[in-house]
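Re: duplicated header lines in exported structure tokens

Our pipeline writes sequence and tokens for each protein into one text file. With two proteins the header for the second block appears twice in some exports. Here is an export where it did not happen, for reference. First protein block:
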Amino acid sequence: MTIAAETIVIREEHDDTAIPSFFYNLVAFNQFHVHANRTDMVFGLVLYASPIEYVGEHSAKRDFAIMDKTWTTIKLTLWNDFVHILGDGHLNTDSNFCPILFACGLHVKSFRGRTYLTTGFYSRLYVNKVDNVTTSLSTWYESNKLAKKRVAGFRSTPLSLQSFIDISNAPRIRLATFYAVQYCRVIANVCHLEQADNFIYEACHRCLKKVVIFQGVPKCESCDLTNVLTIPRLLFRFITCDISGCLKVTMLHDLAQNILRCPATEIKLLLQQPNGRTRVMEMIFSKLGKKSFSWIIPPPIEEFNPHHSYTVSYVLHVDWAEECMWLTKHHQNKLHS
């Protein structure tokens, strides 16, 4: 609506119902995937607020991680004047304090399969607005230990904001149902290391693709260069098992180094020593053998193939206290449904 010089404004004295009203659509966070490109109203707990980032000369942005009662966490990107809506005094490392953000006129966007929210020209944001809806959310949070644990995790994780959102939203499953879900989390043990003689390889230092030996010298087919400089890279293939079944998984270089707490260059040197392979195998199984981990695995791109090895995105040590709280909540929800 545009008000110009010739606009006539008439005060309505009696019938308020004659004044047209505009309502935003309140959407639960787990339903945003079906509300793309719309403006909606949301309210949620602010789990994390990133530092303000300046883009160019005149723009600023800030990312929030917000969660509602559906336990879905979503990223909200604030632009320009909105970045100051939550000052440093509103958010600290104390998980008992969690601001409630009420917003309307947000835009639902999608990037690389991930849904996120962003502010626009008509957006309105309010922090700790007092009404029945926000009071209900505040009461729910104050009495929920699992929610506080989720907040503490966001404020202490070394992972990126988007990575931790992916992890927190991943549904917990059994391996037997892996083919039927999207991004998932499963608690499983390593029961076998496949290709034990081929877990380290030489890669091109430019593109990090595996090199081949051509006429006695390393060649990168991706860069089409011969006699390239190479660096060692790790690649582990495991068979993981839980009570429901098994799944072949692949752990790539960065994740493998993080789990082993040992760089690939040191493993390469160790392999060149007498009994080096035995010592490396002992290192691997001392870190992974006979232990349960939370494996975060993307869904199959094509039809599930039990003979295929699926790449792991993250491997986490199991927080059994959190798992017990989640299991209790899961069964309570089933009883009430």
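Second protein block, exported in the same file:
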Amino acid sequence: MFVLVLLAALAAVTLYGAWQEAQTRSWRWGCLSRLALRRCSWGRWPMSWGHQHPAEAWLGQQADEVVGGPEGYMVLGQWDPPACTLLGSGGQGTVYALDLPSAPPLALKVISLREELAGEQARREVAMMHQLRGVEGVPRVYVHVLCPPMVIMSRHSGVSFEAFLTSASSPCDVLWVCASLCRVLDRIHAAGLVHNDIKEDNILVDRVEGVTVVDFGTMRQAGTRLLDPPEDSAAAHRRLELNKELHPFLCAEILLGHPCHPAMDVYAVGQLLLMAFTALQGLLSGPQEQHLHLLQVLQQTQDTLPLRPTMATLIELLESVMNDLPTCGRPAGHSTH
């Protein structure tokens, strides 16, 4: 009896292994067939990074298929990445530190959505980052891998906004970082895009690199929708209540499916600036009336969309407060962006 049970168990393990192998082959053949269809419609673009990238030749040799790509980044049909170090994960993907021969620090984002959604998500993120090429404070996209859907981009050092506030040594540092964050977002908005997911973990602060905004999974063109509107008022109420605790940085307009607008990012950045202002209580010198006015404007960022201040207004106020602090220039060691 024992021998029969053992044989049955071995047979089950063998069948499971064969099933897994079939699933893997099915995934790979599915990727390759979709790639073939894309190549029929796309043709073959010249491979270009905009300028020669140190890892271009290495990646081209390692990839199963080099599709090419528009000027500025490379498109690979299929590529198996080497062992990487985990940096973080979210609802749409996992990010790893990627170190390639003769290349600067890179980050690899593996899209973790369902197969039918992952490819479109990767294409959208690559398109947004490519649209922001040259914008200071935004990672640069280098490679779009079609199968499995992945994005290789520049890797930036720094701590989260929340960790920075905990360790900040002076009011000048805090004000400078807040103003720099607003400048980066203002440049993103000037390109016609809205981030839609500004929160502590998506802001990197470094003394050399300055402020970098990351994670473009929910970024959209201004005027388009991130979410479909709820079916009725009851569904709208449920959506707002559900996300009140889960996603406190998302304003009601995003959750209710309104067209994306820069003021949606103003709401989120206003929460971060209010956190910073709380950390600065008792440390700011200068006219008290000016500080009260800044606090009032920061509170207005939490109003309904038409009443929120613009990002330019926030930048002007933060710079005004900095200028009235006698020792407040650009903190030593910081980048200028």
